[in-house]
Amino acid sequence: MSNKLRVDELRTELAQRGLVTSGTKPTLVRRLEAALRKESKQSLDTNDASVTKKRPRDSHHGDSNGSEKRLCKDSEDPEETHQAEEEVEGSKKEKLIVATKKGAAVLDQWLPDHIKAHYHVLQQGDEIYDAMLNQTNVGENNNKFYVIQVLEADDGGRFMVYNRWGRVGVKGQDKLLGPYTSQDSAIQEFLGKFFTKTRNHWADRQEFICYPNYYAWLEMDYSERENESAVQEKPESAVGIQLRETQLEPRIAKFISLICNVSMMKQQMMEIGYNAEKLPLGKLSKSTILKGYAVLKRIADMIGQSDRKKLEQLSGEFYTVIPHDFGFKKMREFVIDTPHKLKCKLEMVEALGEIEVATKLLNDDTGVQGDPLYSHYQRLQCELTPVEVGTDEFSVIAKYMQNTHAKTHTNYTVDIVQLFRVSREGEVDCFKKFSDTKNRMLLWHGSRLTNWTGILSQGLRIAPPEAPVTGYMFGKGVYFADMFSKSANYCYANSAATAGVLLLCEVALGDMAELLSANSSADKLPQGKLSTKGVGATAPDLSGSSGTRRWCCCPPRTAKRTTRP
């Protein structure tokens, strides 16, 4: 069965299980089949030791969907007392499901088809009765979700309440309550369940307070206009058609299709642990991202204080706000307890921030009908001009790239696919006050592929106040490098996803505060200094470099070892 999946589907399945996603298709198939065999064996071993029965259909509570489960205490929500039960349920291979959208909210993907066909999520004005809850408790090895939706019949007059719960990454169990003839009865059921699970009133959710051992509410962004096409993943064949039919210059079109690819964004975020199924990238809210930063800031304050229990608690809070799929691994393996782990999660939240910008921009496309690539390009408000091979400009940049690929980064090689001259709307005016600043250089900036729609549309930005300053080597700021490979490493390209994007920017450095070691307070510059320079072991050889107004300072020679005191 695995060999019938596309490569991107195979990688998604592997990423959800925390497995390596690189390699050829046969390798990916073998890896996934081995994981499925292991899961099947775990399921059989568990089921052999349990007594099972079929959930009855209750005429008052309507359909009760789900497969067989073990006998348990008389509890409406068995996941509270039988955490292992949901793991057994989740280890079974599920059928392919499709999300159905009617109105502002998406119907839960596991609703029965006959319900999806005739019901939608209830909306009254701006009030949408749709709640996704999340709870991660590292110490208790909990990483679970709870879905609550009020459903209204498309022809009106009938209402239902749908609940689904389980461990993140699996279907779990569900219950369908109703039908109700009274809208108020269905809403009261929803409100009661929300309070029971969160200790927060639905009406006060914008001032939500997280309580230990209760669920947290994941805020969704429903601002997408109903009549516009939603940002969605497109198969490779659809992208190929767009490239052939767009009015964009072919090289620009190919680049736009690369950075505005929602499938790529989802895949890359899943590979670093993010659960895009629970909190879809297109529904990310700014407040959720800021909450993620805020928890990381508290974790940064605790690292190094030898309080393991507190770090477990804070890690659970982070994973509750920014949902992850750990499969059935032990949660204690994912405590954020080192500066390196903190930095990785900080980079994840930064990427989610860029994706939040990107998905809003792509959702708001109102450009040329039938030419999405051209619409995306217009929304960037950024002019791209291809730089031709053989020109002086191309040659100087290629030489700069070649000369500053450090010997410590020889585990990969880089070829230029295309150079573009970039002009962002308003950028020239912003830079005018620095145009006469001495010590201007062309410097590199690399970033994940997921980030470029946001960067090109809004520019390079400094981390928000909510972000922990200790996550940045020289404090909060915009980072550049004079060594190409240093910036290239931040693209996180690999053998399976080889494309990377870098900027080569004109940077007004002025007088620099030079540092030989990390200092997270370096953004508080000494009097008279305009920038901070972290002096590394290798640097470009600037002797004989061009200093013209056009080229600023661009090193023409191979990098050399620096002389450090």
Automatic annotation (TrEMBL):
Compositional bias ranges of the Basic and acidic residues kind: 59-93
Keywords: ADP-ribosylation, DNA-binding, Glycosyltransferase, Metal-binding, NAD, Nucleotidyltransferase, Nucleus, Repeat, Transferase, Zinc, Zinc-finger
Residues covered by the WGR domain: 118-215
PARP alpha-helical domain: residues covered: 245-363
Localization terms from the record: Nucleus
EC number: 2.4.2.-
Region feature Disordered, mapped onto this chain: 34-93
Primary location recorded for the protein, binned into one broad class: nucleus
One protein family per Pfam: WGR
Catalytic activity: L-aspartyl-[protein] + NAD(+) = 4-O-(ADP-D-ribosyl)-L-aspartyl-[protein] + nicotinamide; L-glutamyl-[protein] + NAD(+) = 5-O-(ADP-D-ribosyl)-L-glutamyl-[protein] + nicotinamide; NAD(+) + (ADP-D-ribosyl)n-acceptor = nicotinamide + (ADP-D-ribosyl)n+1-acceptor + H(+)
GO molecular function: DNA binding; NAD+ poly-ADP-ribosyltransferase activity; NAD+-protein mono-ADP-ribosyltransferase activity; nucleotidyltransferase activity; zinc ion binding
GO process terms (BP): double-strand break repair; protein poly-ADP-ribosylation
Domain PARP catalytic: 371-565
Annotated SAP domain residues: 2-36
GO cellular component: nucleolus
Keyword Zinc: yes
Family affiliation: Belongs to the ARTD/PARP family.
Functional note: Involved in the base excision repair (BER) pathway, by catalyzing the poly(ADP-ribosyl)ation of a limited number of acceptor proteins involved in chromatin architecture and in DNA metabolism. This modification follows DNA damages and appears as an obligatory step in a detection/signaling pathway leading to the reparation of DNA strand breaks.
Protein's UniProt name: Poly [ADP-ribose] polymerase
Source organism (scientific name): Liquidambar formosana (Formosan gum)
